[in-house]
């Protein structure tokens, strides 16, 4: 049972307590913060101003752990905050040391204790907080709203009578609810403070019936509505208040330097979201906004890193122009051209083909940066579709509203005999390719670049004949933005078919050979499982893992090759991303020792993100899945599993089934962390488990 602390106020019952029974969460704020951090909490306590910080060479940035890298969908959320903080540190010749906490109270406590230098978070500026810390200029503003499940509407004060409201411990929401209760003595409110301030987690508990409502900032609730439709926004309980970063009160130089930086960055209290001006004004704003879709070919999250062919190309373009990149994710039903014309972005970067119909709507396209063809695809065990004659008596499945359908009809009208079947509306091209890989469909037609991506991860696909017609992909801008168009054209001319474009293309579209020629592939009856057992064993003991599961994971990651490097940049025996290594304070390139240390430390951090109340084995499977795909995707899969009537606390045959669904647009479009190739973590966990069991049998 959760530990509950009761505080009686006049005619108002406020229940304050943790909603999680895990012992670790009853530790002090500093201890819990040290568990949750990517890197150990800094040993030194230092409260000096900017000059002192520069002597140490590191800016210690405090941030909430739940604001981990998700899928930025609109504006500059936590990922934008991180980028901005790193830019500020670089401008001062400093490195960033990230320190993560579970609650807002811990953020403020650690700042005051000298365990961090600046709070970079979605922090509401309140009179109570101003007594202890100094806020920088506001980055945005928001008001607080009651949020409930869809079967409940809490629109009036009276609707809150006898309701259980859950908020993050030490949050401004807690203070607001207490004030609301004191100002309305006729209602009784049960206030519960949870260890985590993660709004998705709190809303999940509301939907599970544990509580009646939670409280969110208005802009967070609006952002969540992009991927969740399982809540109602109710009563507004505060006026609009500033959202800002914070420093210690005696750090006046750091605060003034930060304020100057934020002002120059044009982010200070900029409420205007729609802009249609040309490149000169974009340079003034210092931010380039792209409109794209969450898909494997454009933009997604992998191991906490923002990735995608379109994203990488646009990120490089923005860097060359000295601009920050801001992403607007279009929903499946959104008209991206209309979004562009309305000023919600500056460029459409979403694998868009250049057509006269689109140009007639008022957009101009850049020079083509990629050429694609429609391609026949079937199962690897089926007869190859390497010619049009091979289509005879085959079954081609396509969505009727797709251009591929017209291609198939033209082939039939040209005398080719095959059966054309309409795919369900909810199936995307990627879904159809996955169905072919499972043997559920015979064949389809798809764009060659999509086939290349899917074939890379699915050996059961057999790409076939590329049809003659070529299509050109281009980036779209408003026809009234010739300056921006000229910059894009120069960028394409400079890099097209050059080293950078080729590396980026190969990163996403080229099929890596899956020939395992690394040492340690075969199991033997030797007591030594890997060349690195003596390094793994003491670290496994220190971090409370079975050393054999870590060896099985190390084999899965690198086949025991210490120089292994993935297409995405992950390195070493445990394939740790460079950004993660930096947060861990470990320098690249890895040695075998540092590579193993980084992997086990990251496993420990990932495990701590899950409830200690989970069965030990289930917590391990979730940790492995999070190591592979990211904690956010696992959390999305647990939520989806519960929605499907499966057990969200069991990985095999439950959450792993939901993980597979998150590669389908009808599901990932409603997930906080968006698209994930679900087969990757599913296979990853199963193969590590099987190899671990084999190790146990030796």
Q: How many discrete structural domains?
A: 5
Overall mean pLDDT stands at 86
CATH architecture classification name of the largest domain: Orthogonal Bundle
CATH topology of the largest domain: Lysozyme
Helix content: 25-40%
Residue stretches low in confidence (pLDDT < 50, at least 5 long) are: 1-42, 513-526
Number of helical segments?
A: 27
CATH class descriptor of the largest domain: Mainly Alpha
Structural class: alpha/beta
Shape: globular
Overall radius of gyration:
26 Å
The main β sheet shows up as:
6 strands, mixed
Strand content: 15-25%
Give the number of DSSP strands.
25
Give the termini separation.
41 Å
Describe the structure.
There is one protein chain. This protein has 698 residues and is of the alpha/beta class. It folds into 5 domains: 4-21 and 144-238, Periplasmic binding protein-like II (D-Maltodextrin-Binding Protein, domain 2, 3-Layer(aba) Sandwich), CATH 3.40.190.10; 40-139 and 243-264, D-Maltodextrin-Binding Protein, domain 2; 279-369 and 476-509, Periplasmic binding protein-like II (D-Maltodextrin-Binding Protein, domain 2, 3-Layer(aba) Sandwich), CATH 3.40.190; 372-473, 3-Layer(aba) Sandwich (D-Maltodextrin-Binding Protein, domain 2); 533-697, Orthogonal Bundle (Lysozyme), CATH 1.10.530. The strands form 8 sheets. Strands 3, 4, 5, 6, 7 and 13 form a 6-stranded mixed beta sheet that branches. A hairpin with a 2-residue loop joins strand 1 (4-9) and strand 2 (12-17). The longest helix has 19 residues, at 679-697. The radius of gyration is 26 Å and the shape is globular.
């Amino acid at each position: 049972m959760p530990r509950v602390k009761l505080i009686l106020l006049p005619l108002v019952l406020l229940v304050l307590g943790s909603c999680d029974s895990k012992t670790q969460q009853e530790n002090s704020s500093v201890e819990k913060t040290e568990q949750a951090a990517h890197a150990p909490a800094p040993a030194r306590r230092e409260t000096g101003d900017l000059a002192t910080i520069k002597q140490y060479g590191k800016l210690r940035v405090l941030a909430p752990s739940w604001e981990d890298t998700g899928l930025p969908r609109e504006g500059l959320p936590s990922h934008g905050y991180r980028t901005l903080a790193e830019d500020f540190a670089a401008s001062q010749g400093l490195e960033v040391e990230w320190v993560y906490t579970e609650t807002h109270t811990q953020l403020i406590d650690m700042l005051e204790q000298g365990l961090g230098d600046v709070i970079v978070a979605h922090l509401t500026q309140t009179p109570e907080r101003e007594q202890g810390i100094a806020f920088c200029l506001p980055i945005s503003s928001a008001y607080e709203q009651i949020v409930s499940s869809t079967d409940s509407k809490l629109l009036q004060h009276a609707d809150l009578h006898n309701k259980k409201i859950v908020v993050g411990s030490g949050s401004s929401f807690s203070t607001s609810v207490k004030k609301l209760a004191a100002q309305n003595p006729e209602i009784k409110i049960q206030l519960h403070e949870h260890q985590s301030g993660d709004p998705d987690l709190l809303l999940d508990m509301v939907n599970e019936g544990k509580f009646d409502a939670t409280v969110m900032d208005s802009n967070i609730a609006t952002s969540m509505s992009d991927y969740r439709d399982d809540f109602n926004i109710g009563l507004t309980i505060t006026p609009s208040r500033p959202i800002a970063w914070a420093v210690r009160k005696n750090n006046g130089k750091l605060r003034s330097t930060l304020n100057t930086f934020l002002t120059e960055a044009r982010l200070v209290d900029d409420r205007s979201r729609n802009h249609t001006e040309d490149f000169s004004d974009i340079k003034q704003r210092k931010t380039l906004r792209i409109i794209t879709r969450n898909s494997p070919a454009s933009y997604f999250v992998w191991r906490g890193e923002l990735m995608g062919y379109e994203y990488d190309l646009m990120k490089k373009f923005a860097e060359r122009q000295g601009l920050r990149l801001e992403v607007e994710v279009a929903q499946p039903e959104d008209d991206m051209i209309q979004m562009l014309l309305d000023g919600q972005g500056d460029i459409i970067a979403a694998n868009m083909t250049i057509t006269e119909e689109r140009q007639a709507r008022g957009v101009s396209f850049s020079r083509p940066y990629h050429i694609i063809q429609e391609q026949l695809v079937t199962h690897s065990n089926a007869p190859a579709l390497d010619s049009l004659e091979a289509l005879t008596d085959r079954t081609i499945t396509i969505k009727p509203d797709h251009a591929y359908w017209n291609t198939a009809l033209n082939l039939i009208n040209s005398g080719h005999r095959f059966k054309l079947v309409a795919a369900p509306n909810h199936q995307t091209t990627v879904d159809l390719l996955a169905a072919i890989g499972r043997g559920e469909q015979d064949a389809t037609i798809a764009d060659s670049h999509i086939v290349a991506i899917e074939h890379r991860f699915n050996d059961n696909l057999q790409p076939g004949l590329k049809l003659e017609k070529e299509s050109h992909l281009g980036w779209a801008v408003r026809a009234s933005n010739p300056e921006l168009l000229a910059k894009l054209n120069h960028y394409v001319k400079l890099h097209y078919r050059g080293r950078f474009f080729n590396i980026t293309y190969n990163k996403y579209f080229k099929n890596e050979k899956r020939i395992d020629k690394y040492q340690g592939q075969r199991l033997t009856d030797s007591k030594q499982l890997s060349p690195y057992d003596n390094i793994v064993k003491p670290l496994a003991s220190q971090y409370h893992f079975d050393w054999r599961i870590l060896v099985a994971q190390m084999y899965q990651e690198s086949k025991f090759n210490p120089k292994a490097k993935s297409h995405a940049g992950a390195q070493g025996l445990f394939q740790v991303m460079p950004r993660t290594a930096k947060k861990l304070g470990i320098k690249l390139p890895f040695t075998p020792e540092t590579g193993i240390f980084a992997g086990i430390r990251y496993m420990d951090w990932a495990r701590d993100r899950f409830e200690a109340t989970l069965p030990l084995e289930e917590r391990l499977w979730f940790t492995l899945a999070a190591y592979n795909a990211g904690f956010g995707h696992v959390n999305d899969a647990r939520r989806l599993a519960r929605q499907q009537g499966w057990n969200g606390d069991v990985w095999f045959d439950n959450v792993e089934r939901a993980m597979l669904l998150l590669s389908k647009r009808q599901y990932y479009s409603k997930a906080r962390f968006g698209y994930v190739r679900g087969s990757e973590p599913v296979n990853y966990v199963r193969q590590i488990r099987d190899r671990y069991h084999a190790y146990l049998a030796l």
